Amino acid sequence: MPESAIHTVTMNNLAKLQECCDADTALALCREIYELASIQYPGHEVLRAIESRLPMPTASQAECVSTVTIKDITIVTRPLGAIGDQVIYCLSHLLPWQEGPVLSVQFASVRCRADREPDTPKWDPLFPVHRRKPIQVIPC
Q1: Is 138 helix (H, G, I), strand (E, B) or coil?
Q2: Cα 72–77–82 angle (5° rounding)?
Q3: In the Cβ-directed half-sphere of 100, how many Cα atoms lie within 13 Å?
Q4: Backbone phi and psi for residue 59, each to the nearest 5 degrees, phi listed first
């Protein structure tokens, strides 16, 4: 059974993304891959394929980028990967259409140093910082 053109282009773009070393190019590839591949495949599977090809963000980068504030609106995001200090993430929301809701996925990037710690909420003086640190699991 021959592969579809969508599958072939998607696989080629995923291969380019895997070798990409520039955050702006990677961001453009993420948008292109999702737009094309989600025609044929479920969106969550496409996001996993993209995520698996990008370098993983550090824990502090993922924490810092997991919520982004744009014009006083806080948006929950999904950090997909990081190239240097640029963290690539996606955000999604449902768009109401006449034929039913449609999931809209957008990709963006933000600068976030790998060693930056998330800000402690000023209103929470008892914030348990130690709970958010990676801990070493000692096997039994």
Answers
A1: coil
A2: 115
A3: 1
A4: -60, -40
Alpha-carbon gap, residue 28 to 127, rounded angstroms: 38
pLDDT digits (tens, 9 = 90+) for 61-107: 888 888 777 777 777 788 999 998 999 999 876 666 666 656 678 89
Which residues, other chains included, contact 30 with Cβ-Cβ below 8 Å and sequence gap of 6+?
A: 17, 50, 54, 80, 88, 90, 107
Three-state SS at 46: helix
Torsion on CA atoms 10, 15, 21, 27, rounded to nearest 10: 10
Residues facing residue 106 across a β-bridge? 91
Q: Spell out a b/e string for 72-82, using b for 16 or more CB atoms within 10 Å of the CB, else e.
A: eeeeebebbbb
Helix (H, G, I), strand (E, B) or coil at 80: strand
Residue 98: partners with Cβ closer than 8 Å, 6 or more residues away = none
Identify the pLDDT of residue 1. Answer: 33
d(CA 38, CA 33): 8
First to last CA, the chain: 50
pTM equals 0.75
Helices 43-53/5-19 angle, 10° precision:
30
